[in-house]
Write a structure and sequence with these properties.
The protein has helices at about 1-15, 60-75, 100-110, 125-135, 145-155, and strands at about 20-30, 35-40, 45-50, 50-55, 75-85, 90-95, 100, 115. The chain is α+β, with helices and mostly antiparallel strands and about 160 residues long. The strands form 2 sheets. The protein has a 5-stranded mixed beta barrel. A two-stranded antiparallel ribbon has the order 4-8. InterPro entries: SNase_OB-fold_sf (IPR035437), Staphylococal_nuclease_OB-fold (IPR016071).
Length: about 160
C-alpha cells in the first residue's frame, strides 16, 4: 500500500510538468473536451480544457457549445500544455490555436463558464463577465445553469 501511494505521489507531478506538444484535433466530445492526435505519433489523447466548464450536451446550449468548439478547432493543429489528469483520466490542459487560448475563447463567446471555486471567479472571470454583460451564447437565456448544478439536479447526460 505504501509503495502504491509513493508511486502515485511521484507520478502525479509528471503531468504537472509534462512538455507541451502539438497535435491535430480529431474529435470534439462537448464544449470542453476534445481528442488530439499528437504530431509526434500515437493514438489520440482525450483532453479537457482546463479552467472552463461548458454546458452538458443534454442541457440548454450544450450542443451549441460543442458545435462552436468543433467549428473553431476540429481538424486544426493545436498546442497542448498539460497540467494534470482529471478523475476520468483525461489530460487537463490549456490548448492553444494560432495563439488563441481555446478555453478563454469559449468563455469569451458565451459557450462556457470560467471554472471558479472557493469564491474565485476562475481564470476567465473577466471574459465571463463580458459575455454575460452582452448576453452572448448561453447568456442569451435567463437562468443559465452551471453544469455542476445541472448534474446535481438532473444527473449525467450519459446514464
Amino acid at each position: 500500500m505504501r509503495r502504491a501511494l509513493a508511486v502515485a505521489a511521484l507520478a502525479a507531478p509528471l503531468w504537472l510538468h509534462a512538455a507541451p506538444f502539438a497535435g491535430v484535433v480529431t474529435h470534439v466530445s462537448d464544449g470542453d473536451s476534445l481528442w488530439i492526435r499528437p504530431l509526434a505519433g500515437g493514438e489520440p489523447v482525450e483532453v479537457r480544457l482546463q479552467g472552463i466548464d461548458a454546458p452538458e450536451i443534454c442541457q440548454p446550449h450544450g450542443r451549441e457549445a460543442r458545435a462552436a468548439l468543433a467549428a473553431l478547432a476540429l481538424h486544426r493543429q493545436v498546442t497542448v500544455r498539460p497540467r494534470a489528469r482529471d478523475r476520468y483520466d483525461r489530460v487537463l490542459a490549456r490548448v492553444g490555436l494560432d495563439g488563441q487560448d481555446l478555453g478563454g475563447w469559449m468563455v469569451e463567446h458565451g459557450h462556457a463558464w470560467s471554472d471558479g471555486w472557493r469564491g474565485s471567479g476562475g481564470p476567465y472571470a473577466r471574459q465571463q463577465a463580458q459575455a454575460a454583460g452582452t448576453r452572448l451564447g448561453l447568456w442569451r437565456s435567463a437562468g443559465a445553469l452551471e453544469p455542476r448544478t445541472f448534474r446535481k439536479r438532473h444527473g449525467s447526460c450519459h446514464r
